Amino acid sequence: MEFHDRVGAQEASWPEQxxxxxxxxxxSQSTFMxxxxxxxxxxxxxxxxxxxxGKSMGTGFLLFAILANFGLYFALLWNRHTPGxxxxxxxxxxxxxxxxxxxxxxxxxAINPWLVVQALGLTAVGFxxxxxxxxxxxxxxxxxxxxxxxxxxxxxxxGIMNIFIGGSGLGLGISILSAVLFMGFTAYDxxxxxxKFRDEEYILATVExxxxxxxxxxxxxxxxxxxxxxxxx
Length: 233
Fold this sequence. Notes:
Elements: H1 3-23, H2 29-54, H3 59-78, H4 85-111, H5 114-137, H6 145-165, H7 168-195, H8 202-232
Helix pairs in contact: 2-4, 2-8, 3-4, 4-8, 5-7, 5-8, 6-7, 7-8
C-alpha cells in the first residue's frame, strides 16, 4: 500500500476511533489497556504456574488451598482500592486458584494431553470474541444480570446434587450450562466495565474478567474430558 493510502485509511478510521472512545462512559480506555489487561494477563500466567504445583496436591493440602483461596478472595475485595496490596492479593489469589485447578488438569492430561490445549484455545477464542464485540458495539448487557445470577444458582445447586447423586449426564449438563453462563458473564462484565465502572475499580474489573475466563475454561475442559472419556469406553 502506498503512503497516501495509509494516511487515507487512518483518516477514514478517525471518526470510528472517536466513536469508540465515546462509548467508554465508565472506566477510561487508557485505564483498561494500561492496568486491567496487563494484570489480567499476569493473573493467567500465575494461574498456569499454580496449576503445575497443584497437580500432585494431597487431600490435606487441598483443604488448605480451598480455605486460603477463599481468604485471599475476600481480602482482595476488601482491599481492592489499596494500591499495591490489591495487586499482590490478586496475584496470590490467581496462583492459589491455579493450584486448585491442578487435579482437573492432571486428569485431562491423563486422558489426552491435548485436551487442555484445546480447552484453552476454545476459551481464548470465545472470551476475546465476546469482549471484542462488546467493545466495538458498546452495547449494554446489564439486563442479563438477573438471568445470569439465577443460572449460576441453578449450577451451584445442581453441582451439590451431583456430588451425592453422581452420573456423567448430569455432570455434562452442568458443564454445558456453565460454559453458556460464563460467556454471558463475559458480555455482562465487559459491558459494565465500559459503561459503569470507575477508573479506581481496575482491580475489581480485572478479577471479574479473570473469573469469567477461568470458569469458562474449566467448563469447556470438563466437556472435553467427558467426550474423550466416553470415546474411550
